Amino acid sequence: MSFTRMSRRRAVGTGGLAALGATLSACGGGRGGTERGRDRTTPAAATPGGDRRMPEEAAPHELTYMSWPTRGVWKSDVHGVRQDIARIARTIAEFEPVTLLANERDVAGARRACGSGVTVVPVPVDDLWMRDTGPSFVLGPDGIAGVDLNFNGWGDKQEHGRDGKVAREILADRRIARIEAPLVGEGGAIEVDGAGTLLATESSLVNDNRNPGKSRADIERELKGLFGATKVIWVDGVRGEDITDCHIDALARFTEPGVVLMSTPDPTAPEDVWAKAYAQARGALDEATDARGKRLDIVSLPEPVDIGRRGDDFLATYVNYYVADGGVVMPRFGDRKADDAAASIVRDLYPGRRVAQVPVDTLGEGGGGIHCATQQLPKKG
C-alpha cells in the first residue's frame, strides 16, 4: 500500500526563529482588514458528544487555509513543491476563498505563483502541512471554536517551532475561541462524518511519542469531548513506518454518514506492512457500526499502479483529497486508467460537485497530499 514513509521532508531546526506576531488579513467574502484578536483559550469539553461538534468536510466552508513550503525544508525540490501548492490553491479558489500563510520573505513570490484569487498573508511557518498544524474547527452554541491539537512534529520526529504556533495565530487573528486539547495529535489523525462518528488509527494517537501514559480509553474520551463524537471507530494503523504513524486521512474517509471510502492496494502487489494495515482496517470497518448503530458501507478506491519511478516516501493514495464548496480536489498520478477510475468513483460519491484532478508529483515525494496541505474553516450555523 503506497502510504507515506518516513518523510515530510527533512528535520527542521528551530534556532533563530522569528517570534510570531504577524497579523493575518481577514478573508472570506469581504476580505477586509481586521484588528488582531486576543487569544481566548477555552477548556476542552469534559463530556462526550457535548455542545460542540466537528462538521463533515462536505459542509459549507468560509474558506480554506494553506501554507507555503520553505526552502529550508524542501531544498532543491522547493520550486517543484511550490508549483504543486500554488496549483492546488488556485484550483480550490475556483470553489471558495483560499488564505495561504507564508514567511514574510516569501509573500511576494507566493502571490505571483498563486495569483489574485488567493489571499497570501505574512505568518512565520516551517512547512506546508496545514491539516496537521492548523486548528481543527468545531461548531457550538457560541459559534465557531478551534481545537489546537498541540502539534509536536508528529511525535517529536521533527522540530517545527513556527508550525507549532500556527493554530494559535490563526485563531487569535479571527477572534475565534481556542480550545487547547488535553492530548497531542494532528488534524490528519481524525476523520468525522458530522453525525457523531469519528475514525482514528490507534498507532498515531495511542502512542507515547504524543500521549505518554494515556490509554486508548483516555484518548477516546477526550476525542469525544473535543469533536462532539459519540462513537469512535479505531483501526490499528502502523507505528514507526512513516512520520505520521499512519494517519487515517491516507487510508479511509467518510463521504457521508455511513459511507467510508477506503484506499485499496493493488491485489497483485507484494504484501507489506501497509497491505496488512489495510486488511486489518477493512476487517474492523466491515464489523463496525456508526453512531446511529448502523453498519458501514465500504467503497474501495484502488490505488494507482503505473506511476513511474517514485521515491520511497511517495504518497500514492487518492483518498487524500479535499472537499471544497461545490467541488472535490484530488490528485492525478499519471496512471491514466487509475486516475480516470478514481475520479469516476469520487464523482459518484459526491453528486453535484465538480471533480478537479491536479498533479502532485513533488508534494507526494514529501509523504503527503492535498488533504494534508489544507484545512477548512466551516461556515457558522
What do these coordinates show?
This protein has 381 residues and is α/β, with parallel strands linked by helices. It has one domain: L-arginine/glycine Amidinotransferase, Chain A (5-stranded Propeller), CATH 3.75.10. The chain has helices spanning 71-74, 78-92, 107-114, 130-133, 153-156, 166-173, 202-205, 216-227, 273-287, 336-349, 361-365, and strands at residues 41-42, 61-67, 98-102, 118-122, 136-140, 143-148, 177-180, 190-192, 197-201, 231-235, 252-256, 259-264, 297-302, 322-324, 327-332, 354-359, 375-378. 51% of the residues are buried. Mean pLDDT is 89; it is low at 1-6, 8-37 and 45-49.
Task: Provide the CATH superfamily.
Answer: L-arginine/glycine Amidinotransferase, Chain A
The CATH topology: L-arginine/glycine Amidinotransferase, Chain A
Please give the share of residues in helix.
Answer: 10-25%
Order of helices and strands: EEHHEHEHEEHHEEEHHEEEHEEEHEHE
Radius of gyration: 19 Å
